[in-house]
User: What shape does this take?
Amino acid sequence: MFSILLGFFDAPTQELMKDFCDQCGQINVSCASTKEEWFTLFEQHKYDCFFFSFEKDIMLVRSVIFTLRNRDEHQHTPILLFSTKIEYLITAFVHWRSCECFLLPLDNKRKDALTSLLHYYVSLYKKIHCDDRKFCQINTSKGLYNLPYSEILYIESTMKKSIIHLKNDAIYVPCPLYQVRSMIADKNFVQTHRSFIVNLENVSFVDKSKEPWGIFFFNSDKEAFASRSHKKTLLPFFPGTDDDITSNNLE
Assistant: This one.
């Protein structure tokens, strides 16, 4: 969820900022009144945006912003400054062009601008994280593979290495199967055999008449397998009865 850390606002303005965030939905808001409180929250949690009151202790806010911008992961994180003093905001804009500035109190025009900005940040966050979930990064000594999850049929273990079988290709990676599995976050990937991890999204048919079961895929002649110990993993997705398992386990 998109998260914002509010810093150094008085109680009424803090509540106003929280109300704006609530209206935009799916935003997690944390609040800090002191420098110690702010840094404690900052070190303990990950934040996607920062709101600061640029009103009283200007040097404090400046030092906090410098701390943020000196960290690689926060060089471009959105920072919004709020003040009743336009001269403070002009100075901030000159020194930190990457910050958005809002003059208080917020009139209707500024309220609309803030709401639109928050909607933009949330929609961008969703898009970025949705894209993250669509791709799998396999990092090996021979290179970094950025593969769409939807293209992967299954992953096969062979001689302490792995073969990633794609719809129209196969990639050999110098990693054992368990290491490749640890790099895959998608819940559609399940282990069906000591030597196979299968992408259920692409499975068209499970042949339970074979031993081990044969797993087939849409628009492909490739085949993976489900061993006895892993058959129950498949049953919730490809329903069968206990007899299916029992009869196929009889030698």
Q: What stands out?
A: The domain at 141-249 is CATH 2.40.50.1020 (OB fold (Dihydrolipoamide Acetyltransferase, E2P)). The first strand starts at residue 2 and ends at 7. The first helix runs from residue 11 to 24. Confidence is low (pLDDT under 50) at residues 241-251.
